[in-house]
């Protein structure tokens, strides 16, 4: 039984790969709350006002997802709870949260992580990180088309996204809750190219095998994107 979490910046391809991978492995996908998230558009419109609320919203929904995923023990999640702190501290560093909010958030996160430590399975079996350049990130954000994420909606998002990529570099280097691997999201178009998709899935199954988490009787599932339901 395997729990895999995806990580990566906005538009990296986490939800897309979650759909593909869960179908391939025959496990259940978990998606972060985006289209049904009432705070996200407010945050992009007025980040100073809504950073703290958005962070609490995400922390709460992700905590429930990861708890469920760790108890079901056969899932792929499209973002890890370990990235929440990256987002919050990045926003705090640009003045969108005060010291008291940072302290309160950090204490809350620590309590939640302690609660996860008490689960029979404490951490995912594998982190799959999708690495993308700024150019790829922007192309994908445009392709997906959420209005509030576009540079035309707020030109300061350029700095925000570039900063996010820098924070993710360090975050990935420091991550040590589980085995981890990186997918080259610039190089592989796992949406349109079947051979790229096969290559990426192969890299992930090799890693699962290496860490002893590929079930012995496992058979590859369907990987044609037409047969996959994408959700984000
Ligand atoms: N490797 C890829 N090659 C080409 N297009 C891709 C790739 N990965 C994702 N896309 C496209 O990029 C867009 C963003 O992908 P997706 O929604 O999966 O990103 P995400 O990492 O889940 O983003 P977010 O965290 O912001 O929700 C989608 O339109 C998807 O079809
Ligand atoms: N501020 C902030 N904190 C988070 O924890 C967080 N998690 C996701 N997101 C934003 C990125 C995408 O626009 C969109 C989908 O990932 O939601 C976040 N934004």
TrEMBL record:
One of its GO terms (cellular component) is cytoplasm. Residues 4-206 form the Deoxynucleoside kinase domain. The active site is at residue 78. InterPro entries: DCK/DGK, Deoxyribonucleoside_kinase, DNK_dom, P-loop_NTPase. It is an enzyme of class 2 (transferase). Keywords: ATP-binding, Kinase, Nucleotide-binding, Transferase. Its EC number is 2.7.1.113. One of its GO terms (molecular function) is ATP binding. ATP binds at residues 8-16, 140-144. The keyword Nucleotide-binding applies. Substrate binds at residues 32, 44, 55, 79, 84, 149. Belongs to the DCK/DGK family. This is Deoxyguanosine kinase. It comes from Lactobacillus delbrueckii subsp. delbrueckii. The lineage of its organism: Bacteria, Bacillati, Bacillota, Bacilli, Lactobacillales.
